[in-house]
Structures are given as structure tokens and as C-alpha cells.
Design goal:
mainly beta; single chain
Length: 379
């Protein structure tokens, strides 16, 4: 049977290690987990095995009932992130305390039995995520903050920080469909997985909000913050508070989000909370639908025109957008933009100098709606 694990945050400054707990009934009751899991804060399923880090690294072959220590003497006992790609296990390490930028990425090619340091070092590696072609690492720390890095082999790493603030700390990387989301100390950012280039995804958040966790559930995103839970459509940044049912105390300071069977769990400074997934989806879809239109096409100028015209697009927040030109028969003439677009006003120029005179349609499309304007080309 599937098991659910929960553990409290540990204090690296005083080297305290908190016990882990295990539930076999979807969180209705809890029992202490194997004592080896003291300090565990990260879990990963790799093949038929379950791995746990946070302190040292352990592996279980029986759904978490019993655990075996891995990498003794080779892997530091402050594993913060795990990923698997191309037959290798990746372990990110780092003590997130004052003056401790001593983390690294370690690699194993025998399911975690033996380990060797990879090519990323002297930085706290807080999160790892595997994509089709390689692995992304999110880093943090006091002095060494390298943002997000990319590798295909664990040895050579390159920064992929286009669109991110300088020296940003990256706490979590989450893949959702063809996109990857980064939870940072400057908010949430999104990129396609094909080419890593980041776009802010923060429309609707209150100023100064600290985001700690992110969970993709269907077409929705949930974030855990220091002020509660927020929800947004996955393809359009429109964050809205979803605090219903949470007391206005430590339960609003969310540190973890998880989906387990038919429930969403949130880990807070006041304990663990659970809500049926169906309710979360209904509430999330409802508040998203109540939001005002998040984009529009401003009037095109000049129009009519002979050569070029400028098409203004206004977005309330980041969105997956396509901006295309069609003739009146519905044939696509040009694609002016397709991909993630940041919130704000953007201006696109269409050069129609080679297009025959006549009527054309400019269509702006997001995941939730579309808008069209008529263009007139004269000669």
C-alpha cells in the first residue's frame, strides 16, 4: 500500500534532527517511521525504490518500512535534493545556515551505493529536477547564489538564468506539462522546458509575499506562502487567495504542498492540513473564473496602413500567448509571438509591405480566451 511521510523542518544551525512519521491511511493516523529517517525532508521515487534525504541518504525497497544507509563516507549528511536521469542518481547537498556555502552535486551510477562529486560545488543545491534532455539545479546560500544551472551529464553545468534577478535563491523547481516553474526568493518564474528562459509569474500576489512551495494539480497551480495558499490557472498568472478553512495563525505559514491519492496536503508551522482534491479543484476553478479579463489587444496604429503597423498587447500577468495574423479565409499569414509573455504592455510590429491590400485578422490567444482585431492593408 502507498505510504505518506511527514517530517518537521530541521534546524541546521543547532544540528537538530526531527523524527519522521508514516501514514498508511491517507493521513488519518500516523506512526513513527524508521528511526533512520530522523531529519528526512526530501523523498523521491526512483524505479521501485524510495529514497529519502535531508540528513543522510537512505533507500527503501518496501514502501518505506525499512531503510538502508547509502554513500557512507562518500556523501555528506545534508542531502537537500534528489533526481534521476540517464541511469544516474543526482544528490544535491548544502547546509542552509550562516556562512555555509559548502554544498555540491554528487552522482551515483549504481542506484546510490557509491557516490562521486559532480561538477557543481561550493554552492547550496536546494532543488533538482529531471527534464527530457538533462537536469536543472536550483541553488541558494549566503554568498554563492548561481540561480538555476543545467547539465546533461552532471559534470558540466551551465547557468540558465535569462529573465531571473541576479543572485536569486531558488528553493524549488516543478515540472508541469511542457513548462517548469521556479520558486525563488523573488517570487515564481516560469519557462518552457524546450528553451530555458524565465518569465515572472506573480500577478495577484500581495507585495512582499514569500512563496515557499508550489504544486501543479491539473490545470491549476497552488502555492504555499507565509500568508496561506494561493491558486492560479497554470497557463495564466492570476493568483488568488485560497485560505478557506485555515485558521489565521501559524497554519497560514505554509512550508510544503503535496498531492496524495484524492487529497491535497499542506504542511504549515501549525501542523499538517488536508483537503479533498475535488474541493480544491472546484474552489480553484471558481476563483480563477471570477477574475477580470487578464489581457487585451489595444487599438492598432496606424490602421488602415500601407507598410507596417504596431499591435499593443496588455497582460495583467504572465501567460502563454500566441499572436498571429490571418487573412479573411482563415489562412495563417504570420506568427508575431508564441510562448510565455510577461505581464505588462508589449508592442509588436507587423510588416505587411508584401501583403495584398485587403482585410486581415490579428488574433491574440491564451489558454483561457482569445481576442481579435481587424487590420486593413491599403495600397
Amino acid at each position: 500500500d502507498p505510504h505518506l511521510f511527514a517530517t518537521a523542518e530541521q534546524d541546521d544551525l543547532y544540528q537538530t534532527r526531527t523524527p519522521a512519521f508514516r501514514s498508511t491511511d491517507a493521513g488519518a493516523s500516523w506512526l513513527p517511521a524508521d528511526a533512520a529517517l530522523t531529519g528526512a525532508t526530501v523523498f523521491a521515487n526512483v524505479g521501485a525504490d524510495l529514497y529519502a534525504g535531508g540528513g543522510c541518504l537512505y533507500r527503501s525497497a518496501d514502501h518505506g518500512l525499512h531503510w538502508t544507509l547509502l554513500g557512507e563516507g562518500q556523501l555528506p549528511c545534508y542531502v537537500r535534493a534528489l533526481a534521476a536521469h540517464g541511469g544516474r542518481l543526482y544528490a544535491g547537498t548544502g547546509r542552509y545556515i550562516l556562512n555555509a556555502d559548502d554544498g555540491a552535486v554528487y552522482l551515483s551510477e549504481d542506484e546510490g551505493t557509491t557516490w562521486a562529486q559532480g561538477g557543481l560545488a561550493d554552492v547550496q543545491v536546494l532543488t533538482l529536477v529531471a527534464l527530457d534532455g538533462g537536469v536543472l539545479a536550483g541553488t541558494g546560500g549566503v554568498y554563492a547564489r548561481e540561480g538555476v544551472l543545467w547539465t546533461t551529464d552532471g559534470v558540466l553545468w551551465e547557468p540558465v538564468n535569462e529573465g531571473l534577478p541576479e543572485r536569486v535563491g531558488v528553493f524549488s523547481l516543478v515540472v508541469a506539462g511542457a513548462d517548469v516553474f521556479a520558486v525563488t526568493d523573488a517570487g515564481v518564474f516560469v519557462s518552457s522546458t524546450g528553451r530555458i528562459a524565465w518569465t515572472p509569474f506573480n500577478a495577484g500576489f500581495p507585495a512582499g509575499l514569500a512563496v515557499r512551495a508550489l504544486l501543479a494539480v491539473g490545470d491549476l497551480l497552488l502555492t504555499g506562502t507565509d500568508r496561506g495558499v494561493y491558486v492560479s490557472p497554470r497557463r495564466l498568472a492570476r493568483w488568488t487567495a485560497l485560505h478557506e478553512g485555515l485558521p489565521d495563525d501559524g497554519a497560514r505559514r505554509v512550508r510544503a504542498l503535496a498531492l496524495f491519492e484524492d487529497d491535497v496536503f499542506i504542511g504549515t508551522e501549525a501542523g499538517l492540513w488536508r483537503r479533498p482534491l475535488a474541493e480544491v479543484l472546484a474552489l480553484g476553478s471558481g476563483v480563477a473564473a471570477e477574475q477580470p479579463a487578464a489581457f487585451h489587444l489595444d487599438p492598432v496604429h496606424p490602421n488602415p496602413f500601407r507598410g507596417r503597423t504596431t499591435i499593443p498587447v496588455v497582460l495583467a500577468g504572465a501567460a502563454q500567448v500566441s499572436l498571429k495574423i490571418y487573412d479573411v479565409q482563415g489562412r495563417q499569414i504570420a506568427t508575431l509571438f508564441s510562448g510565455w509573455m510577461a505581464g505588462g504592455t508589449h508592442r509588436f510590429v507587423w510588416d505587411a509591405s508584401r501583403a495584398p491590400a485587403g482585410l486581415y485578422l490579428c488574433r491574440l490567444t491564451t489558454a483561457t480566451a482569445a481576442q481579435t482585431r481587424t487590420l486593413v492593408v491599403v495600397r
